[in-house]
Amino acid sequence: xxxxxxxLVKLNNAGYKQNNKWLVEGVSFTVEKGKIVTLIGxxxxxxxxxxxxxxxxxxxxxxxxEKFTNKIGYVPQKISIDWTLPLRVxxxxxxxxxxxxxxxxxxxxxxxxxHLKNKNLGNLSGGEFQRVLLARAISKKPELLVLDEPVxxxxxxxxxxxxxxxxxxxxxxxxxxxxISHDLHTVMSATDYVVCLNGHVCCCGSPTEVxxxxxxxxxxxxxxxxxxxxxxxxxxxxxxxxxxxxxx
Length: 248
Hints:
CATH class of the largest domain: Alpha Beta
Oligomer: single chain
Distance between the termini: 42 Å
Number of strands: 11
Helix content: 25-40%
Radius of gyration: 18 Å
Shape: globular
Low-confidence stretches: 229-248
CATH architecture of the largest domain: 3-Layer(aba) Sandwich
């Protein structure tokens, strides 16, 4: 790790071509310790491809990717599971890694699902399952955490709580987070830097800068910008893992 800064991964004019077609090109950004960088854009804009470029999944990419850490956690957008198998949450945590009970317990507690440790994976709600995936990703205390649509299957109130949890994890672990999301109205409040993609970088900067950028408005409309700038989450209540609201 460089002693001059906290950079974990750096993309410089990166891109990837498949079957002579660019999936994404000309992407540049850095992810630093304790910071959250969010990739937004319409479907097919290259968000997941960009994340996989950063992770080193592809060979023969355009541009450069510099990684300054190998301690990486990853939550993919899709995961194939045979839901008919009697697989408990604890078993799922241990599928590919040998983790101690203490490590598993700590990760599950960090994401608020320790009470589900012995529950069948197939009986979890969408929000509970996403929290288990997140627990699995942080179990080895990564320096870089890549989250591809981490709130899918979660209702609106659950989304807000999930983004708050992601911010807390970034602070507690001092890890950098590369986040992919289409939930523009909520994700902006949990983000330090935004990269808006549509096959290339349309615009980038702070959430406010992106919200007012003409390229962003062209993609998502004037109303999206208004929604982003007025969105504010009140903390006079808590959300359960099922998305229910309880007053403090």
